[in-house]
Amino acid sequence: AMIGSVVAAYIAVNLPEVGGLSQLFANEAVAGKLSLLPDFSNTDMAVSVLVIPLAVQWWSVWYPGSEPGGGGYIAQRMLAAKDEKHAVGATLFFNAAHYALRPWPWILVALASLVVFPDLDSLRQAFPGVDPDVVRHDMAYPAMLTFLPTGLLGLVLASLIAAYMSTISTHLNWGSSYVVNDFYKRFVKPGASEKQLVRAGRVSSVLLMILAGMVALLLSNAMQAFNILLQIGAGTGLLFILRWFWWRVNAASELTAMTVSFLIAAGFLVQDKTDLLPIGALADWQKLVIGVGVTTICWLAVTMLTKPAEEQTLRSFYRLTRPGGPGWRRVVESARADGEALDQDGAAWALPLGVLCMVIGCFAVYSTLFATGYWLYGDPVPATVLSVVAGVSVIVLFALWKKALRA
């Protein structure tokens, strides 16, 4: 997929209509769209694409591949790795490739499309056999692919299909695992054999795919799907982080968070279609903040009103994950009173070092992302500064990572 996107960017930038990087960036259709930061005079845009992601979204919203506190999406990859070192290294590489390496080929193709296809009418001319009502701005990328030579077009198409199938297989395996292990095996047929479980997994995969296709037909563009996903996960992120570090979080907490966030997302979808409530049009970021606030209040209330998990379950979880910290002190002290030592004497709490690695890793990844942009723009001063920041961050990160592994 990476090779395909880089090839597509190279071809797009060197089209006669575009004329290379320097001509692309100088084009009047592109010149006003090169800022790496949003226009702060446009408050709605600045809040939605910068303030909310930095202040709220990263810790509060579940999104596939970027789950706060971890989740089944990434766990599939980590559990398939050779050992813990390989698992962490692969996840770090994924984040660097996903956030620092992959965006710029897409961005360059998008900018080139503004020159080649300046409006929707020109896009519709590129797809004469497609219903004009279906052709929207998100068709610009496939329209640019029509300029690729036949062999390269096949390579890029194969890369897109591979990336698509990777995502589809992840979701189907993940969803099927929930259906089989948490529903079928637990409630429908507790004594099911492995053969029966595999058959149930295959059937549930097909049903999930059909259901997903039906939902997709109700959507009008990719951005709508993206916003719905964010809204469904709004408010669950903090729970998924705290469940590792606070003994009081239980199954009812998680069920409440997932149910409430889903109902709020569905409610906003119905409101957008029907205007049942006289609340006026809300921006997507406003819906997100409302969803985070309501969901968080609900799951916290349920957590405090319901019984915690059984003591032996909590102790077993602690022995397995070694979360440490003040959030598990009650469980550790209770076990010590019963003559059971859960904590390792003299062992330092590993979380602060892990958080420091996370912060430095973010500096490394995002410095690389923005440095690449400034090098492409031909702006050497910020490009050099950010490149140095990225290099130093990587060196410090690997030094701390070795220390964390020893701990």
What is the structure about, briefly put?
This protein has 407 residues and is mostly helical. It is 73% helix and 0% strand. The longest helix is centred in the middle third of the chain and has 39 residues.
What does this structure look like?
This protein has helices at residues 2-13, 21-26, 28-31, 43-60, 72-79, 84-101, 103-116, 120-126, 140-145, 150-188, 194-217, 222-233, 237-245, 251-274, 284-305, 311-321, 329-337, 351-377, 380-406. The protein is mostly helical. Helix 4 runs parallel beside helix 13.
Q: In this structure, how is the largest beta sheet organized?
A: none
User: SS-based structural class?
Assistant: mainly alpha
Helix-residue proportion: over 70%
Rg, Å, rounded: 24 Å
Instruction: Compute the average pLDDT.
Output: 89
Low-confidence stretches: none
Shape: globular
Oligomer: single chain
Terminal-residue CA separation = 36 Å
Q: Beta fraction of the residues?
A: under 5%
Strand count: 0
Helix-strand topology string: HHHHHHHHHHHHHHHHHHH
By DSSP (H or I, 4+ residues per run), the number of helices equals 19
What layout of secondary structure does this protein have?
Layout: H1 2-13, H2 21-26, H3 28-31, H4 43-60, H5 72-79, H6 84-101, H7 103-116, H8 120-126, H9 140-145, H10 150-188, H11 194-217, H12 222-233, H13 237-245, H14 251-274, H15 284-305, H16 311-321, H17 329-337, H18 351-377, H19 380-406
Helix pairs in contact: 1-7, 1-10, 4-13, 4-15, 5-6, 6-18, 10-11, 12-14, 12-15, 14-15, 18-19
